[in-house]
Structure formats: structure tokens, C-alpha cells
Design the sequence.
């Protein structure tokens, strides 16, 4: 497969409103950098992330998907992140079976006070996905931009 010189991975990050999104905010306000290729989608809780959202992201051309939520025991809806953790464990195993490499998906717990952690997690994830290269599995060709 030919790798384009200007290629940068497209990363979708689902962040829960109460902790991880605030962590991303803190990373920004404390001038911690993370790649602009990370597109954050704010969700009320990590358990709001339907497995279909992740499949759809890959279908629409995402190279990696990360879900960030409150630390276990800190979820604002008591146990949402436990549901998310179980759900994602199953989904990621299924995706691996379908050929999506393990490194393209991740679940991380980032609190509102962990701006530095948010930035380092995102940098590390982007680095991992960059090493894996472009994702072509599950891609819906109808969603692909026409070549110039
Ligand atoms: Fe953050 Fe549930 S509110 S994971």
C-alpha cells in the first residue's frame, strides 16, 4: 500500500461531559498541546457511546477512535463508565476479529483535573495510530471524498 506523504490520521475522541471534556479544556487552557487531528465529540457520559457510533466513525474514514470518561467510581451517573468498559471490551474484540488493529481503539479514564494526562494520552494515541497507517477496513466508499 502506498502511503501519502501528507497523510495524518483522523482521530475521533468521545469525551464525557463531566470529566474528560473538562480535562481537554484544562489541557487547552494550560497550553498542553495535542494534535489537531483529534476531533472531540462531547457526550453526557461514556456509556452514551453506542457501539454503532464507533462502527460509523470507522465507516466514515476514522483511523482511530478513543473513548474517554471519568475514572471508575467517579462517573456522574454512578456506573455509566462500568457499562462503557464492558461494552467496549466486547466491541474492540469483535473489531479485532474483523481486522481493525487493537491500537486503533482505546478507552481511557481522564478526570477534569488531568489536563496533562489528556494531552499525553492523545499524543500517544495519535502516535500509535500513525504507526499503524491509514485504516481501510470497514470504510464505506460512498463516504470517501472524490480524488482531484
Ligand atoms: Fe463521565 Fe459517566 S459521567 S463517564
Sequence:
Amino acid at each position: 500500500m502506498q502511503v501519502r506523504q501528507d497523510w495524518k490520521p483522523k482521530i475521533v475522541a468521545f469525551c464525557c461531559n463531566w470529566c474528560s471534556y473538562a480535562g481537554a479544556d484544562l489541557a487547552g487552557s494550560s497550553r498542553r498541546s495535542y494534535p489537531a487531528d483529534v476531533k472531540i465529540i462531547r457526550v453526557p457520559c461514556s456509556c452514551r457511546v453506542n457501539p454503532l457510533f464507533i462502527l460509523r466513525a470507522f465507516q466514515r474514514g476514522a483511523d482511530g477512535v478513543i473513548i474517554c470518561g471519568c475514572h471508575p467510581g467517579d462517573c456522574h451517573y454512578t456506573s455509566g463508565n462500568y457499562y462503557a468498559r464492558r461494552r467496549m471490551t466486547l466491541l474492540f474484540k469483535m473489531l479485532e476479529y474483523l481486522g481493525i488493529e487493537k491500537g486503533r481503539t482505546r478507552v481511557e479514564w481522564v478526570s477534569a483535573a488531568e489536563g496533562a494526562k489528556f494531552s499525553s494520552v492523545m499524543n500517544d494515541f495519535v502516535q500509535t495510530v500513525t504507526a499503524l497507517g491509514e485504516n481501510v477496513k470497514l470504510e464505506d466508499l460512498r463516504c470517501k471524498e472524490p480524488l482531484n
